[in-house]
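Spend some time on the protein that follows and explain the fold to me:
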Amino acid sequence: MCRNITTLRGLEPTATDEEIEAAARQYVRKVSGVQKVSAATEDPFERAVALITTATAELIAELPPRKQPPRTVPPLRRRASTTR
């Protein structure tokens, strides 16, 4: 379903809070169908992002290290490397 969400586990350096939140935000947009947050959707949307961000950070922290790094670089890192 969310083929475009980049794998964050195993990144060097480790995934940042900003990268984890961006992935959570992308997931919530996908499953909710909300692409642009409105006054009617803002509170539940942001609550879901916060919950998924926390759960994702905990999951990444508790899993054992990967044997191989992810195949792709997260979008925030791709953008940062092209703006240098």
About this structure: The radius of gyration is 14 Å. The chain has a mean pLDDT of 89. The chain has one domain: 1-64. The helical segments are 17-32, 42-62, 75-82.
